[in-house]
Amino acid sequence: MDLERSRITRRGFVAMTGAASLGALLAACGQGGSSDSGGATTAAAAGETTAAGATTAASTTAVAAPTFDPASEPDGPIKLFEWVGYDAKEMWAGYTGGEYGTKSPLKFDFLENDQQALAKVASGYNPDIIHPCVAYTKDWNAAGLIQPLDTALLPDYEGIPEAIRTGGMIDGQVYHVAFDIGFSTLTYRADKLPLVQGEESWNVLLDPANKGRISIYSDEVSIIKIGALINEGAIDPNKLTAEQIEASKTTLIEAKPQIRNFWGNQNDAINDFVNGNVWATYTWPDGYYKIKNHPKMKDIDVRYMQPTEGRLAWVCGFVVNATSERPGRSMLAIAAANTPQTGAWLTDAFQYTSAQQAGVTDLIKNKDLITEFELDDPAAFAPPRAWFETPLDNRKDYVEAGSEVKAA
Amino acid sequence: MATEATAETPKVELGGRRELTRKGRDRLAGYGLSLPAIALLLVFFLLPIYFIVRFSLGVERFAKTPAAAELTGELSGFSTQLWRDFLGPGLELDILGSATISFPTWVLGVLFIVLVLGAVFGTRLRRYGGWVSATCFVLLLAPFMTIPWGNNLLRVARLSSEADYLRLFFKSVTMATTASVLAVLIAFPIAYFLAFGIKKSKYTWLLIVIAPFLTSYLLRIFAWKLILGDQGIINTAIFETGLRDPDNPLSFLIYSQFTVILVLLYAWVPFIVLPIFIALENLDRRLLEAATDLGASRLTALRKVTLPIAAPGIIAAFLFVFIPSIGEYITPSLVGGTEGYMFGQAIAQQFVGGTLNWQTGSVLSIFLLGVVLFLTLASSKFLRQGGGATA
Known about the structure:
The complex is a heterodimer of chains A (408) and B (391).
Chain A: H1 2-5, H2 10-37, E1 42-43, E2 48-49, E3 78-82, H3 89-96, E4 106-110, H4 114-122, E5 129-130, H5 137-142, H6 162-167, E6 169-170, E7 173-174, E8 177-189, E9 214-217, H7 220-232, H8 242-255, E10 259-263, H9 266-274, E11 280-283, H10 285-292, E12 302-304, E13 311-320, H11 327-337, H12 340-350, E14 353-354, H13 360-363, H14 368-372, E15 386-388, H15 395-407
Helix pairs in contact in A: 3-11, 7-8, 7-15, 8-15, 9-10
Chain B: H1 2-56, H2 66-72, H3 81-87, E1 90-95, E2 99-104, H4 105-121, H5 129-141, E3 146-149, E4 152-155, E5 157-161, H6 164-197, H7 202-209, H8 217-228, H9 233-240, H10 257-281, H11 285-293, H12 298-326, H13 330-336, H14 343-351, H15 358-378, H16 380-390
Antiparallel strand pairs in B: 1-2, 1-5, 3-4
């Protein structure tokens, strides 16, 4: 509906095509991951265990969607387990100003990374809405922590390209509503950081000339993926064997002299960069943008690396806790974040790509961002230029190896 | 006589009964008054430890369901696997970077206990007691005695292991030992000056020394980040004087073992000046006068009179720094970087960080707790004397 109403510009069309390609890739990866596992996937809400390859696209399976009734739900706060910054009032204005904004006010707690959020909720922490990346949806579901969603409460749901929507579906039901899409790569000072053979590459981590000049994200899975890209070149870092994980660990331990710090909060990385403590740091698009526009970086050539091996990338969004007493009201809050206006705000405020595509390109105020982050180039969102997170069957191996890199 | 005796007996019985009743009441009151403390100890110390031990043996797990446990990589039943993984197959002792001795991990455990007991109780031996104690103390510290040198530490000997977390533990012990020894070396002259060098307003000076405690610890660490950064105050001053190029700052000042040790020193030195100062303040000055009268130089008097008497205070001060430093989390997280990563951070990573494996975290915690508890108990006489002096 919204798509039909919207004026689709050339740029918007290209962006949508790009997003659709990305979604198709994600969906394909998701299904591949499922069949690779060969194991059973537990349908949490139903408490059933299905046979191998249980993940299927919703569009091909007719499963009745649950129906939530916000009016019959008890008053009380809706607890969100969110990323830092996503408590911005612009993101939730559509809900807080609505019927349930005061009856069920939003309360925020912040997560550090997906693995931590998953384990914390698995331990009994009970937020209503969580903001994991789509690659973890299978894990959340397998642990029985999330429930299928009533998308009838999301008026703009169709504005998310189908291919991306499919990535959040399990057994034909929607568990994850995509919200933000972004890259993870190195932001670096072109005047300082010597590139290996003049090429942008993750290999800078191994160059002794960069000793103590790089910081990276403390997330263990990302650490191992970076090592794999260094070792193997442009391969899918989501499908590493035990040997490749071990080799990646060895490489990152070898790269540790160059790594000055593993940051847990992107603001620390930004501060270190602008204060000259590092010349390159792993950031998301907003981190790069903040660094580039920092007063201390005026006249300095700051670049967002497009490594020859590819950037890491992600699609994140919302899930609702299986034990939530207010799934309907939670959906209304998610609906507020799923509008084209919020999508455009997301790009303007955080420089991320919105999963909501309907008319968003036109609503983005800072049009330079579209060029800067190649939002209109589908190839920028596909291998070998970007490797989107997909479900990992051997995630614990990644995490263990990443922890050992830090402890070594 | 008989009448007197008969008359006295019930008196005594009555008095005894009264005495017993009073004693009983006092004892009951004592138990009653200590109940809150016992309850606190039980609820906030023993009970959590009980559960942490269960976690470390795989009996309890963090994840609610077996499927979630599969994701977090936790065990679902009793196993000593995590302990075996942590302790690893064996250890290596590298002496002066040339000779390397390998031995099973349990040997170090036995050696550690023997050396600690030797260091603490060696002095009770009739002959060579002092030598036994001193030798044990030196052997105990030798693998961890270092001086900060850039991003790393210069070592006399170095304990290492194939097991990552145990190796990290040795690194943390090394950093904590270095910080503790340096803290005592810095604090002693300050305390000495306060005790013997100042005649008036001693306690005002003491207050000035401990003044940093009046501000937030986090704030002070962030201030250090500004001072030690590559474009911080120290490096900028060096650039201004032309001693170094701005492209070549003293990079070991931030995100290194040196930084962690420096900030720990800054945090702990004022604190441990206190017990040493009290130990010196309580020293009978007539002993020093007697030593001088007998021809001892000031240095000999310091070595033979002051130091032995102040020893409990000095050892207490060492332990006051060492015990919290070995499990430090905040300081290395903020200024340690990859080089200054410590055991406390690894524990936090397992409990509240990205890894979130409470079972592995419990193994690390119990091990740290065991080492610290043993050290505390073994050296409790010093802590008592040092603490007593403080009180």
